[in-house]
Amino acid sequence: MATQAESRARIIAAVITGGLGLIGTIIGVRALSGRGSAGDRFHGVVMSRDGSRIAGARVSVETGAAVPINGSSDSEGVFNVILPKGTESMHVRIEADGYQRYDQQGDRRFIDTAEYRLDPLPKARGPQPDTELRRSTPAPATKASMLSSISAPMPAPSGGLLDESLPLRSGPNAPWAVVVFGNHMERRSDVMSWVRDALQGSGRDTISLFRKTSDEQREASRLFEGNAALFQQLNAGTRCSNILVGKLVVASHPPMDGLFIAEARLSVHVLSPSGEMLKQFQLEEKGGGENDENAIRNAVNNLQEVIQRELPGSIG
Hints:
globular, five-stranded mixed sheet, Double Stranded RNA Binding Domain, four-stranded antiparallel sheet, single chain, Protocatechuate 3,4-Dioxygenase, subunit A, 316 residues, 2 domains
């Protein structure tokens, strides 16, 4: 028969064993709950073209994994999702009621732009009774109306976007319209000048198509995408032969051995006045410096030489 001391020893051993098991279980649960939480944070703000923040926007990110990573924007338009560690490329879709879908795929450095602006859906136009009535009862022809029918057509109104002071010119000898936008607005005007110099050096005149710079920058991404409604509204074929839209994106990299590295990329779309995509290509260059600011400045400065050297040949 076991003594009282032996019974007490067995009880203490059982308690210790059970306690160790419980501690192990807790540690295991914590490890499992933390597994997969370490990753790359991808966040941004969903906005309309006028800068209003959009709540409840649906965000979907594909990184090559079997299942897309989904999220949504909060009341301030901010979304926040966790990507697999080391994600370099991704496909981002953002949808919101009443807006056109944002859809971009490529290198994460050039998609992760902090702000994501959505275009409103085009408004449906109902029937115009007065117009239909006028069409069904044509007015009798007069000498004045017959003369006006054979006169040169006047350009359609552009809704106040187009610089109406530009001379009417069309055809292959008309100037090129140039627009530059992106995530590094401090150097936008410099890059714009470099692009114009490269075009003019190859015998092409250039113009600014929009009446206001604010309108140009607000509509730049729609131009870049070849938005049919915008091109129809602009009726740019009465002022230019082609439209070159450049999207400037500057990305910095973690320092290596104390040297900061940045990369400047100009994605170029050449479009016809009707919005047809004629050519698309990229010009890019890197720069280094003792801090992030100098690296970015040097990368953009180095891009100037690439623009002057490669842009004329790239557009043909």
